Amino acid sequence: MNQKMFRGYATTAAAREGHDLVLNLLQRAGAQQPALEDALLEACLFGQGKSVELLISSDMTRPEVLAQALLYASSRGFVDIVAILIKVKPKHSTLNQSETNNKILL
Prior knowledge:
Blueprint: H1 10-17, H2 20-28, H3 33-46, H4 49-56, H5 63-76, H6 79-88, H7 97-101
């Protein structure tokens, strides 16, 4: 489950295809942080909103991965996923106050 294969981890495949029950089982069975983060990015690329919600709830995602996930969902036009990721942003902000003043935020 935590071994990376050709197209990612088992969690990546489950997220890509929207198999939320399988993803939940893998998560509860002990999927590690890299596998869950890879799955989150894949879910954002393929518009799998329920998978994104499930993976965000694990609180195992680093701020830089959340930023990349937001970029993926935004570039693909997945409004529902962007909304989910924006709700999480205050808990996992990657910007300090001085950087915030110099950047345009959503």
